[in-house]
Each structure stands twice: as C-alpha cells, then as structure tokens.
Amino acid sequence: MKNLICMITMLLVALAIGNSAYAKNCNVRQGDSIWGICNRYHLDLNEVLKLNKHLKNPRLIYPNEKINLPHADTGTQTEEDSKSDNIQDGNETMDTPIVAQMKEVLDLVNQERDKQGLNPVMLNSELNHVATLKAMDMRDNNYFDHNSRTYGTPFEMLQNFGIHYNYAGENIAAGQKTSEQVMNDWMNSSGHRANILNKNYTHLGVGYVEGGSYGTYWVQEFTKPQ
C-alpha cells in the first residue's frame, strides 16, 4: 500500500486552556501524565480518555487524584513498567518499544538539523501525548489528514491540551515500517523537510501506532513554547 505523508505549519500565539481534573480508581503520582499512565499499565490512550470524559484538560492531572482505568491490574506493575512514563524534556528514560521509536525519530531529526548547523530539538512528553493521540485517532477513525473530527486542527488540538507556543508545525505519515523510512520520506518532501529543519522549533513530540488501514501511523508535533 502506498505510503502517505502530509505536513502543516503555522506561526501562532496560543491561548492555552487550564483546568483541574477529578477522577477515580488509579492514584496519580508525582510527574504522572495520562499518556504515561497508559504506558505504565499497557492501556490504549483513547480508551482511557473515553472513561475519563470529565477531564476537561487531560494534560492537567495532579498527585493523589484518581483516573478510571479499563481492565488494569494496578497492583502488579514491574519496576520497568513504572519507568515507562518517565520522559522529561531533554533527559528521557526510554523503556518501551513505542518510546524507543520516539527516540529513534528524535535522533534522526537532530542528525538532519546538525547537518544544517541547527540546534537540536528536545523530546517533550506533553507533545508525545498529543502526537500519540493524533496517530491513534487517524488509525481508529480511518482517515489521513491534519484536521480531525475529534480534535480539530493541529493548532486547536495543542490549545485544547493546554500547550502554549509561539511556533507550531505538524508532520504526519502512514504505511512506513521503520523510523528510517518515515524520516527519509519526510526529508524528501520540501514541506516536511522545512518543518524538520525549522530553526524556530525547540521541542518535538512523536506519535507512532500500529494497525488500521495503513498498518502504521506516524506524527511529529513541533513547537517553540511561549
């Protein structure tokens, strides 16, 4: 099946949304995110979000709050599982296959930026969260487009997840089997290449999921925070 790639970029000053969250069943720990909790218990992010619709802004959860989890054994996580969501800006701990894919894409992006004398971008857990949701949404709703019926435009999605930025851009792709293949496709497209080599960007989120019509879905979310 033919591989697909698409890009979008924009200069915006976003109005971020901030809301508190209340939930039940899983205690939130210091530094937790919804995306990280899903990694810890090997859960589908979209499924967890459906069970926590009361969260107006899933980005903002706080220690000792509770989150609904589907079919999760919250008492038997391993030490390795507990590390899986430990992704900090610029100092990532990579412990799962999906996170390893994110790191590979990050390394390839920064290799290309280094060739052009540009500063590296840093992997950001909040952008990973958004990128993963977007990849899942394309897979689960069988579409390939920057605009989502679930989340709106990429810029609306960032705003609704409370991400402040001055510059933002998105690359998407589908059907590529490896990080090297998707990066090669992006770098051979002028628009995608421009996003990857944009000197204004400082942070990157990577989404990668398997399944659906194309077999794999890839998303890059670039920003320069406010």
Helix content: 25-40%
> What would CATH call the architecture of the largest domain?
3-Layer(aba) Sandwich
Describe the global form: globular
Count of distinct strands:
9
Low-pLDDT segments, ≥5 res: 10-24, 74-95
Main sheet attributes: strand count, strand direction, barrel closure: 5 strands, mixed
The secondary-structure element order is EEHHEHEEHEHHEHHEE
Arrangement of strands in the largest sheet:
1-7-9-8-6
| Alpha-beta content class | alpha+beta
Helix run count:
8
Which features characterize this protein?
226 residues, alpha+beta, Membrane-bound Lytic Murein Transglycosylase D, Chain A, Pathogenesis-related Protein p14a, five-stranded mixed β-sheet, two-stranded antiparallel sheet, 9 strands, globular
Structural features, described:
This protein has eight helices and nine strands. By secondary structure, the protein is of the alpha+beta class. It folds into two domains: 25-68, Membrane-bound Lytic Murein Transglycosylase D, Chain A (Roll), CATH 3.10.350; 96-225, CAP (Pathogenesis-related Protein p14a, 3-Layer(aba) Sandwich), CATH 3.40.33. It starts with a strand and ends with a strand. Residues 10-24 and 74-95 have low confidence and may be disordered.
